[in-house]
Amino acid sequence: MIFKSVGEGRPYPEHNLSSRDWAKIPPRQVRLDQLVSTKRELDLQSLLAKDSTFYGDLFPHVVLWHGELYLEDGLHRALRSALHQRLVIHARVFDMDAI
Questions:
Q1: Which InterPro entries match (predicted)?
Q2: Between 55 and 72, whose confidence is greater?
Q3: Sheet containing 27-31, strands listed edge to edge, beginning at the edge strand earlier in sequence
Q4: DSSP three-state, residue 4
Q5: Do residues 48 and 62 lie in contact, with contact meaning Cβ atoms separated by under 8 Å?
Q6: How many CB atoms are located within 10 Å of the residue 79 CB?
Q7: Closest CA to 4 of 40, 32, 41, 38
Q8: In this structure, are strands 35-37 and 68-73 parallel, antiparallel, or unpaired?
Q9: What is the mean pLDDT of residues 50-67?
Q10: What percent of the chain has pLDDT over 90?
């Protein structure tokens, strides 16, 4: 099992964080098996593309809400890590429980 579970969309309220806001959050290690994916489908061609992790933020975006860690952005990066048999990823974690 790669993720804790696979969800259908974002169960948490809109946070309105911009790319600049995400960049201010320092990355930390997160275990893949603690993440709940917010996407059910994956574009395999994107996953296997050489530059699939080149664009956007270097770190996946995770939202902590009601004690659960939701992988909001960075599914391809997380899966590539899992394919390399890594148990953790470095991600930016926004704590919605703290607001």
A1: VapB-like_prob (IPR014447)
A2: 72
A3: 5-6, 35-37, 68-73, 61-65, 88-95, 27-31
A4: coil
A5: no
A6: 19
A7: 32
A8: parallel
A9: 80
A10: 65
Residue with tokens 């061609």: 45
Please provide the DSSP assignment of 51-64 as one string. Answer: TTTTSS-SS-EEEE
pTM higher than 0.85, yes or no? Answer: yes
Paired tokens of 30: 């997160």
Half-sphere exposure of 6 (CA within 13 A, CB side): 8
Task: Give the separation between CA 65 and CA 59, rounded to whole angstroms.
Answer: 19
* Block residue for tokens 């948490």: 12
Report how many helices (DSSP H) and strands (DSSP E) the chain contains, helices first: 3, 6
Nearest Cα to 77, choosing from 52, 94, 97?
52
If you search the block for the tokens 């994956």, which residue do you land on? 42
> Percentages helix, strand, coil for the chain, rounded to the nearest 5?
25, 30, 45
Amino acid identity at 55: Y
